[in-house]
Structures are given as structure tokens and as C-alpha cells.
Write a structure and sequence with these properties.
The chain is mostly helical and 123 residues long. It has two domains: 74 residues, no CATH class; 31 residues, no CATH class. The protein is built from seven helices and no strands. α3 crosses α5.
Length: 123
């Protein structure tokens, strides 16, 4: 993917979309940044971003988007916009095995059935 330059416009965009990082850090990983944009950006934000990325860049970002950034609705929309219908499956985090969960529970002193099953219970 083409690097996204740090300009006043992209800096403002990065501050809004990836508010928890400095703009230079957010723009350093363009695929991850575009994934956040595909999920959260307004039409005006996308117009600014499109001055720096192509359809091929968007397709690449969709192909290797980190799990958990693009939600199902945005995923379906952007894949359809890129001519991919039906959309492939949304990237997801792998579900950890029971052995891994038990190892982590033991490491952190969790007692089974005491609400320590952290993220597995949500899946």
C-alpha cells in the first residue's frame, strides 16, 4: 500500500480516527489506518483520504485488515463498493483453546467459574 503522508489534513484525520495514538504513529501503518477510516470516517474524511489512496489500496486494506477494527456493516459496504459481493467473512480473532485459557487462568490466579474466563465468555 502507498504510504499516507503526514499533512495538515491527514494529521487532523488521524487525530479524529485513531485518537489514542499520535498522528505520525497512526499513519505509519497505512493498512491499519485505512481500516479505521473504513469503519469510522465521514464522507468528508474519505474525500481527504482518497487524495492519497486508490481503490487497489482499499482492496488491500480489506484483504489484510486487522481483526476487530471494521464492523460487519462497514465491511459489507466497502466490499460492495469495491465490487466484492457477497463480501468475504469479516476478519475475527481466533478463539483460544480451553488449554490456553486454563494456562492463562492459572498464571493469573483465576479460579474456574469465578468470572475469570475474560474474553472467551464474550465469544
Amino acid at each position: 500500500m502507498t504510504p499516507i503522508p503526514l499533512t495538515p489534513e491527514t494529521e487532523a484525520l488521524a487525530r479524529r480516527l485513531v485518537w489514542f495514538e499520535e498522528p505520525a504513529e497512526a499513519l505509519a501503518d497505512p493498512i491499519r489506518f485505512v481500516a479505521y477510516a473504513l469503519e469510522c470516517a465521514t464522507h468528508e474524511d474519505i474525500t481527504v483520504l482518497r487524495a492519497h489512496i486508490t481503490d487497489a489500496d482499499i482492496r488491500e486494506a480489506l484483504d489484510v485488515a486487522p481483526p476487530g477494527i471494521i464492523g460487519p456493516r462497514s465491511w459489507a459496504y466497502w466490499n460492495a463498493r469495491m465490487g466484492r459481493y457477497p463480501a468475504p467473512r469479516v476478519p475475527t480473532h481466533p478463539v483460544p483453546s480451553d488449554a490456553l485459557v486454563s494456562t492463562i487462568d492459572a498464571k493469573y490466579g483465576c479460579v474456574p467459574n469465578a468470572g475469570c474466563r475474560w474474553f472467551v465468555a464474550a465469544m
